[in-house]
Amino acid sequence: MAHTTSSCRRTVFGLMAFCLVMLHGAVAAQTIRFAPEKDYAPFVSAGPAGQVQGLSIDVLDILKPRLGANVQVLPADNLANILQAARRGEVDLISSLRPTPERAEFLAFTEPYVKVPAVLVVKQGPIPPTLKDLADRPVAVGKGYAVESFVRTNYPLIRWVAVSDDVAALQALLRGDVDGVVADVASVSDATRHSGIRGVQVVESLPFEYELSFAYRKELAALGDALNAGLKDITPATRQALLRRWIDTETLTYEDPRLTWVRKLAMVLSVLALVMVGVWRLRAKRSSDRAADGL
């Protein structure tokens, strides 16, 4: 009898322990650990009071009701540290990322929710250099950013200098530590408007586009499905409103300053063509009138 009672007690305690473990797992599954970047404005950054803000945060707020879980916002950090934490399994969700083969080893990605081009930025001057002109010279690029591996592969003659973020890169440009910066045009626009960056200009568009997505741990397929479903439901009007709030959308339509004269010349030629057509029509009418008078 005592043996039976002891066995029952062990069974009850085992069931209780199992239930506690399952309960802990359920609570953990209902918490999504989101790691925001502290310095990737206007997409995501830490504000003056430490609060995270940006276009990607607004998109995430729209998606939260679809996730079926609480979103725990981790302390803002730089991208390199966030990716290391994600590789260790300490982060569930990251915003504002472009898929790369290296990141795909431990992360999965949603469809992109915003696209912006990468550009070369230099100090203002009468004859700005292109990347070809900067061979063997230092050019800054964000450390761990998707564009870093692209430029190192496609522009090997340049001395690439990896920096923590785009603002730090632009500050290095103004100090003269580097001769150029490669960054996305939206971040450059934000830095010139809000970070006191002056005296720089965009001179070249690179064949690289930031297609920014949400990234999540590969094990969390259901989270990815929920994110993608929510992104599909965001209307074009809402997307445009978010862009207008955070990004000077005119900067997204890139025009190489060295080709501005071509556009102006084309406009002048178009006006001249219209004038010549008008003159020809006027002469034709006068000739027709004289011919009629002769009759």
- How many structural units, i.e. domains? 2
Element pattern in H and E: HEEEEHEHEEEEHEHEHEHHH
The coarse silhouette is globular
Structural class: alpha/beta
- How far apart lie the N and C ends? 136 Å
Number of helices: 9
Under CATH, the homologous superfamily of the largest domain reads: Periplasmic binding protein-like II
- pLDDT < 50 runs, ≥5 residues: 11-29, 258-269
CATH class of the largest domain: Alpha Beta
Percentage of β-strand residues? 15-25%
* Mean pLDDT value: 83
How much helix is in the residues?
40-55%
Task: Please compute the radius of gyration using only Cα atoms.
Answer: 29 Å
Q: What characterizes the major β-sheet?
A: 9 strands, mixed
CATH architecture of the largest domain: 3-Layer(aba) Sandwich
